[in-house]
Protein 1
Amino acid sequence: MPVRRKIIAGNWKMNKTATESQILVADLLEKLNKFDGAEVVICPPFTSLVSCQQALGKHTEIDLGAQNMHQETSGAYTGEISAAMLKDLFVRFVILGHSERRQYFGETDEIVNQKAHTAIKARLRPILCVGETLSEREAGKMAQVVTKQVQASCAGFTEDDWSVSVIAYEPVWAIGTGKTATPEQAQEVHALIRATVEKMAGKAISDKLRIQYGGSVKPDNARLLLNQPDIDGALVGGASLDAESFVAIIKNACQKEEIS
Ligand code: 13P
């Protein structure tokens, strides 16, 4: 069984000006204090990428990610941002298909798939988000919805494409609601995602794929969630806007569960 290095990403959503972002990065670096037990990524708004990069300077314990990009490489798409533009700002990761993009901006699995291929060609690492709504879960359709999202969002992936990709399971009902999936509920879906990838690409690839959980991750629930066998990281929204709570999540996530 390959060891999957934990990956904890902060999705700042539409929060923090460029100036506020710089302050948060400085605070994070101080509190992380060179901790390197996990891969740490921050995904500020586009307008903060430069100031975050400047605040990071030569520090390598935090990577930069973006929250979205356009599927085309360039052209007449007013207001959009391309993969090359991100790459040029030293961005390494890009969140794609977040449920808020799907819900408010009409992103479909097909668009997410196009974006993923464009991102990978530009040498960005996609964090592909999937997850069911509350009504889908209550209707007993969780497995069907999540399986289809994984299959369609990652269609046409080669072995190399899988090797740079991360999947984030974010149950829509747990995002920003304070309701977290229990570690068992999350583990069930993560195992399902890994099995889906195994069917698409084989066991060697699915064993290596990192799958993050997202949805009301907080310092006090991170450890139990991340001790589940198929949970390899977290995609953190609200709690990533505060250096103390984000660093506590990172450190807790890397602790082994104590067996009492
Ligand atoms: P919260 O952690 O605020 O629930 O947000 C989760 C999320 O959407 C991360 O992408």
Note: The radius of gyration is 17 Å.
Protein 2
Amino acid sequence: MTIDEQVSTYYNMLLKRNAGEPEFHQAVAEVLDSLKIVLEKDPHYADYGLIQRLCEPERQLIFRVPWVDDDGMVQVNRGFRVQFNSALGPYKGGLRFHPSVNLGIIKFLGFEQIFKNSLTGLPIGGGKGGSDFDPKGKSDAEIMRFCQSFMTELHNHIGEYRDVPAGDIGVGAREIGYLFGQYRRLAGQHESGVLTGKGLTWGGSLVRKEATGYGLVYLTAEMLKAHGESLAGAKVIVSGSGNVAIYAIEKAQELGATVIGFSDSSGWIETPNGVDVAKLREIKEERRERAAVYCDEVEGAICHTDGSIWDLKADVALPCATQNELDGDHARALAANGVRFVAEGANMPSTPEAIEVFRAKGVYFAPGKAANAGGVATSALEMQQNASRDSWSFEYTDQRLHKIMSNIYRTIAATAKEYGHEGDYVLGANIAGFKKVADAMLAQGVI
Ligand code: GLU
């Protein structure tokens, strides 16, 4: 069998065994495609069922999450935790609370997390979890009761050395607080290492909140520098207005860029003069309102409900909203409008067609598993602080994050070059992320 045939056989088996999970198929297809070139060079990476084992989660938990709403009605949601791979360390990855969540989405996120976490260079395996619960429009008391019910099941499966969840879409400081409180109560002890993204007075780390957005911009700056460009004076589009987007906007502007637009699920906001980050944080973090309110409160901002944020003329695009938000047409529009660099703050925001367009048009493209690794990397730094009962300064933690992101860029660029595809960061990220996990799995035997 040729390598192509061998990889197609694995993939077809995976499609059959995981029917109805398109996002998971998409994430695996992209990695397998990159691995063909590794297998040509080093066929031993297919030994001992390595690829099949890598694509099959070590454990998948699905559980009922019943809770009582403010009207006294019983609501039932579904909870998930996919413990994908622990060859490099305890399972690590966020929890997503969003109505779109299903097993396929959690598996795609967990699969990506394996390679992302490997790229950080820190000892963390890959996992992901969440629920189809929609926090939008819920009272604080409802969020709390939901989190308590969710943790009542999850606490049996997590721990400092076992599985360390954190936040993702719909899970921020408030939710982590309620989840941690319930864990502490059930465990009967204060185990700070069981969750990351905690509050600063009870085991949290400075910079964790900003880390995904800041890290994205550090890696983007590194990529621009390697191609003789800089963020100073650049026009940047950032989609989304959640935690990743807010701190990507803040850091990009700090480095001299103008962020000319951001968005939320109901539309996009054009900000020709840049974004007032303090105002955006107040609207999103304190008032928990829609991003569109920004247009009523900041002069010069224009709200759009039709067209696309990707039609803006810019130098750099940072998709920071959600999976598959940027398709082939969007990618063509970006390239036609002069965008030369794209880095993903969200997980898998670009469709496979969009990535093909970027390749064909010579747009440098840093995939999420490299570009947004700053969040989970800083979670691992939080774990280090918890393990040593210490807390580090903002400056020191930020320096560590900066160094990690620069290293990731150097690693993916060098790997792409080594395999004869200079500038193809998708290939570089997939191969570099894979090899470390694969070497550990081979060393540890068939388990
Ligand atoms: N949810 C984030 C991610 O996609 C962070 C996970 C973590 O900190 O464990 O990587």
Note: The radius of gyration is 21 Å.
